Amino acid sequence: MKIACFITSHGFGHATRTLALISKLAKTSSLEISIFSTLPDWFFHENLGSIPFQTIHLKTDVGLVQKTPFEHDLNSTLDQLDSFLQFENNKRIITLLEKGEFDFIFCDISPLGLHLSKKLGIPSCLLENFTWDWIYEEYLTRNNNFKKPIEQLKGIFQSANLHIQTTPICNPAQNAQPINPIFRPAKKDGTVMRKSLGIKEEEQVILVTTGGIPQKYSFINKIKEDHNRFYILTGAFSEYERGSNFCLLPHKSAHYFPDLIQSADGVVGKVGYGTVAEVWAAQKPFIAVFRENFRESQPMRNFINQNISGFEIGDQMFQRGDWIDDVGSFLEINENKRVSLPVNGSDQAVRLITEWLNHKRVA
Fold first, then answer.
1. N or C: which end of the chain has fewer CB within 10 A?
2. Nearest 5°: CA angle at 76, between 75 and 80?
3. What DSSP designation does 267 have?
4. CA–CA separation, 4 vs 59, rounded Å?
5. Reported pTM
6. Secondary structure class of 165 (helix, strand, coil)
7. pLDDT tens, 4-14?
8. How far apart are CA 61 and CA 85, in angstroms?
9. What are 328-361's pLDDT values in tens digits?
10. How many helices (H) and strands (E) does the chain have?
């Protein structure tokens, strides 16, 4: 089976769920994958292992232009949308898709993939928990220039032949198939992971993350003063650094993120799809930091409140490290909000895709 995957580069969360799905699909069929994205190659190697794939470095959407993991720039976003949605300069990609004889184009909220799917008559599958037109609607009251891209994107996203929505779903669509959260299973248990990091078995471990968007942590000195716990901080660090009660892990490291979650007693950081899905799967307590003025935040908040123990803090409180004083009590409130192991949404998505493709072949 040959699949062209167009994946948004807005953080790592969209890619992690797509690659989790592909990994499950590879267990049922022999795959050849072409990935269109601007995410780094090492990330795909880490998640796909021996599954054959090629990467084509390509901007597949605009999303929101981020100043920091918690701030976005609406004017820059509009400027880039105006240029991107003209869909020019894609002759090389069109030629590649035509020659590739792909069974279908898979899109994780990439409008470019869906646009090319319709243009070339290649079947398309859209996976999303939100689409960009829905996100932009929130900003119409501040800038009416979002109206045109919203209308254009709405038509593009509605053109998908198979539409799958993964929980937490932001805007349920009538013609879409709902599934559970998609998460990457851990490869190692927490004890093995702690040993590989040189952490004592009896130590309390806190994992700190802001997802795939670079962030400098201003509270590291405050962490160094907390000798009751060990902190794992992931982010855009140039190299690994180890202190007596902490370690800094670059995004590209020898450690798989779901394994880090398994090793932790609790997780602190930015709310993003990949982090939330994997924290939910592991049933770890979560100190959640939401982006302000981002429409996905409320559906995410609802899901977390119902399914994950912990509490919410503001961006500034996170940046100052005020939460560090409350970590002890935070770990004590953990309560398992699920009575059985979860069904991974990737299993459900594979079944939907397989049934869809079989129906197309029969037709």
1. C
2. 120
3. E
4. 14
5. 0.93
6. strand
7. 999 998 888 89
8. 9
9. 888 876 666 655 678 999 999 999 999 999 987 6
10. 15, 16
